[in-house]
User: Which sequence fits this backbone?
């Protein structure tokens, strides 16, 4: 009985781990997106400054 | 001299065509169920008719054909034929809904949906039945991942020449050595995103905009399917502007980026190496081309006729459309006529460049693709290096695309060939548009939008446009989606049938 | 003298009338020629489509369509609280939405709303209540659907082996 429970628990932990991994991967994708948005906002900011100078 | 394809060869084409369409037929039942859910009687029968016709056609092909092996060329042309038949079938319920001027319009819409383009010829969209509206978005979701990819999943290892079919749909990436597993992962990733995306969008629409629960689910499902598959249809006629909600724009913006990423990259980030996103040549290339197009667009928006004044509005409008164009989605937060009258030519050129570049390979985006641009620049660097070093030196150029690769003739040549075909098609469509009396810049914009499966429009695409242009755009959309090879194979096949011995 | 004055007044009125009155416009014109109507006070008539959407701080957004094009109309909180909005219904497949006459300021790039093209309502009048759209059951479709369905079934049974 204990063996069965143990294997079930292992299975659950494995599932949990892999879904955590996927979530982490998703977070990395979001980070790429945020980085892209921030860089382009910065570019726009620079551009506006540049325009104000001339 | 051509060899005429044998009887058994043609019969096996029919056999596989029937087999994949068999799956396609059952997809008609999902909107039929939604029609019952929303108590829409006439659309229910539209989908029943669609289902029956698709079923009969697939069964007929299946019955006439017989199992056999396919040569590479035949399986590639099979994909192109499959897409045309799928267009004719999925246009049926659209046409029966009465929202389209002619069957050609419905076919245009269906092809636009299947290739995840997003140009639309629908009339009175705001009064369209929910089920029909769902179908428009649903075909994007199915065909965005790939009709064949869907077929592979269901029929599995039964078909022997699966890989060629997979390549025919413009996919070369093998995430797993086995195509079946690759297809499985593509669908698994899409469903993970479907769950997350619909959940977040539904929350935003339900709490942020106060749309009723069922409709919030409906809207978010439609928006998700069109954004993640970089399609570009929306459930209402004003595109994303309908929601007047900044969060909706932000979430769709993110989904577009996620949709334009390579499925193999998703796999790597989820299960293998998180650093792939920094190392991969495609994400780097995407990053730089997006910034390049963004600089051109802001420069263009600073030129008269400037109409955007504040930082926030410049960013919101400019960046949204750059990403929408670059990822091949085609969501708009302005009206088509505003692009034509209020955006300067420089800004339009920035958008055209973004559309022409397109997203990653093995994603749902269209266009030339980031990897080919990267290869182009790498080979340029190689040439420069060669000139700088003595002729006896051996120079190599490496790039990282899931593994370290060395640039060789074959890779460069195939990238150049496809890029050239894209450029020619862009130009050719623009030429036809301008022959029909539209300004060249506008017709070029629309042509690039169709070929790269984007869906941004300057207003040329409307139900009263010349019929010939509709046909041209349909061909362009299909050619751009299948990356030409399959279309060339079809010509080869017909040539062999007519002139072969 | 009186006649001359009246004639003069008439001409004066003809020339300057557009300045005083609110321009009646079609939504389709607004959307297709945004530059021409920029910042003007316009009066449009159309049907609400889709949902009535919540905005920030008690304001609302509605989308009004004239059958060809639709435009977003911003209802500020001050105006919205005096309207009987619970009686309004947006158009969809089964409903022809409430018809409204809206007077407001047209912006092709509203500074307040991040550069959106919109209409800021100042006065809203109800023209016609919403009504349901009847879609008569097309018997041809039903017959065709059933016929094809049975053909498909028969064909399936015929080719099953």
Assistant:
């Amino acid at each position: 009985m204990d063996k069965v429970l143990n294997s079930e628990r292992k299975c659950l932990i494995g599932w949990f781990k892999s879904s955590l991994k996927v979530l982490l991967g998703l977070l990395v994708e979001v980070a790429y997106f945020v980085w892209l948005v921030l860089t382009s906002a910065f570019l726009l900011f620079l551009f506006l400054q540049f325009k104000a100078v001339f | 001299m051509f060899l005429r394809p044998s009887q058994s060869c043609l019969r096996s084409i029919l056999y596989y065509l029937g087999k994949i369409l068999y799956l396609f037929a059952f997809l008609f039942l999902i909107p039929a169920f939604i029609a019952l859910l929303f108590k829409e009687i006439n659309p229910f029968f539209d989908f029943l008719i669609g289902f029956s016709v698709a079923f009969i056609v697939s069964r007929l092909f299946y019955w006439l054909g017989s199992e056999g092996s396919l040569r590479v060329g035949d399986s590639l042309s099979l994909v192109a034929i499959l897409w045309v038949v799928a267009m004719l079938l999925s246009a049926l319920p659209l046409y029966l809904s009465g929202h389209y001027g002619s069957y050609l319009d419905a076919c245009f819409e269906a092809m636009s949906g299947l290739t995840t383009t997003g140009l639309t010829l629908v009339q009175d969209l705001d009064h369209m039945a929910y089920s029909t509206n769902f179908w428009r978005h649903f075909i994007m979701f199915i065909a965005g991942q790939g009709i064949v990819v869907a077929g592979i999943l269901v029929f599995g290892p039964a078909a022997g020449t699966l890989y060629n079919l997979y390549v025919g749909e413009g996919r070369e990436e093998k995430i797993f050595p086995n195509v079946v597993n690759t297809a499985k992962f593509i669908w698994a990733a899409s469903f993970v995103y479907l769950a997350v995306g619909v959940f977040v969008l539904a929350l935003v629409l339900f709490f942020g905009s106060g749309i009723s629960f069922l409709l919030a689910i409906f809207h978010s499902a439609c928006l998700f399917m069109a954004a993640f598959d970089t399609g570009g249809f929306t459930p209402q006629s004003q595109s994303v502007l309908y929601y007047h909600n900044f969060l909706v724009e932000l979430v769709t913006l993110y989904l577009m980026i996620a949709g334009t990423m390579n499925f193999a990259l998703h796999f790597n980030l989820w299960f293998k190496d998180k650093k792939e996103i920094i190392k991969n040549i495609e994400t780097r290339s995407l990053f730089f081309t997006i910034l390049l197009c963004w600089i051109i667009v802001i420069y263009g928006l600073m030129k008269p006729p400037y109409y955007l004044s504040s930082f926030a509005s410049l960013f919101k409008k400019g960046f949204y459309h750059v990403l929408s164009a670059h990822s091949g989605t085609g969501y708009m937060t302005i009206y088509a006529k505003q692009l034509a009258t209020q955006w300067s030519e420089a800004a339009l050129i920035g958008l055209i460049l973004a559309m022409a570049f397109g997203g990653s390979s093995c994603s749902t985006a269209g266009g030339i693709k980031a990897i080919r641009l990267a290869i182009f620049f790498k080979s340029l660097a190689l040439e420069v290096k060669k000139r700088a070093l003595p002729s006896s030196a051996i120079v190599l150029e490496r790039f990282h695309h899931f593994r370290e690769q060395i640039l060789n003739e074959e890779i460069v040549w195939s990238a150049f060939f496809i890029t050239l075909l894209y450029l020619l098609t862009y130009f050719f469509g623009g030429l036809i548009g301008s022959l029909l009396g539209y300004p060249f810049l506008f017709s070029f914009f629309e042509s690039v939008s169709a070929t790269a499966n984007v869906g941004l429009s300057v207003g040329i695409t409307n139900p009263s446009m010349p019929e010939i242009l509709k046909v041209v755009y349909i061909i362009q959309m299909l050619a751009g989606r299948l990356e030409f090879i399959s279309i060339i194979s079809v010509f080869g096949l017909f040539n062999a049938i007519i002139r072969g011995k | 003298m009186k006649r001359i004055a009246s004639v003069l007044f008439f001409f004066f009125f003809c020339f300057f009338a557009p300045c005083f009155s609110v321009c009646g416009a079609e939504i389709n014109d607004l959307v297709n020629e945004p530059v021409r109507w920029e910042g003007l006070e316009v009066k449009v008539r159309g049907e609400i489509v889709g949902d009535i959407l919540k905005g920030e701080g008690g304001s609302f957004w509605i989308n009004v369509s004239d059958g060809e094009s639709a435009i977003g109309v911003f209802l500020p909180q001050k105006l919205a609280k005096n309207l009987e909005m619970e009686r309004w219904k947006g158009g969809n497949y089964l409903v022809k939405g409430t018809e409204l006459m809206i007077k407001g300021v047209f912006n092709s790039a509203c500074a307040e709303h991040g550069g959106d093209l919109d209409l800021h309502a100042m006065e809203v009048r109800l023209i016609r209540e919403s009504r349901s759209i009847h879609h008569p059951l097309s018997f041809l479709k039903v017959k065709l659907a059933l016929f094809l369905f049975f053909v498909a079934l028969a064909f399936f049974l015929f080719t099953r082996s």
About this structure: The interface with chain B takes residues 18, 21-22, 24-26, 28-30, 32-33, 36-37, 39-41, 43-45, 47-48, 51 of chain A (CB under 8 Å).
